[in-house]
Amino acid sequence: MSKRVMNPVVRRTAVALATAGLGASLVAGAGSAFAAEGKTAAPVALNASAAVAAQAEAQAHVAAQLKAAVAKAETGAVQAAAVKTVATKASAAWVKPVSSYTLSASFNQGGAMWAHKHSGQDFAVPVGTSVKAAAAGTVVKAGPNGGGDGPAYGNAIVVKHADGRYSQYAHLSKIQVHIGQQVSAGQQIALSGNTGNSSGPHLHFEIRTTPNYGSALNPAAFLRAQGVFI
Asked: What's the predicted TM-score (pTM) here?
């Protein structure tokens, strides 16, 4: 049996083709590996970026909600403060003439103590108790003899107010203002006493439509209408 000998040229060509094929396989394999690796890495990178973006968006949304909630709370607080301020100003326009007291004779009460029915509201307090202006105004009467209204009132003061009403304070032990003086709501204007026609230490308080005796209104009802309850 004869041995078959390959033509050297053919052999070289075959080797070259084999080598080329192997190189192509290596290149193709590497390319496939890189491609495969690229296909795996790209989604991971994209997913990470998307997660970061989503987290940032969620945090921004929460921050916006928190900011809106804070703004709403602050607005509510400001509105509540404004309402409170308005209410305080409204109630502060008129105040009680004395802070601590016991109510005694009331408006329009009859009895032997008065020639006519009682013209004011009495607040039983010790002599020397601070008497305050019930509202801002101008002193139009101040002195003994009821400030001109008669000896029954003892030492008395009458204050004219912006709404056209007048307040009177009688049976005082000491007067601390003078005619023409401007006073504010809650300002001390006198000390209570037991002067004039009085059965005991107290403040006689009136609300009038004029500065003079005989024009009195129910002071408790008037104060109540101003938001002041005695």
From this structure: 0.61
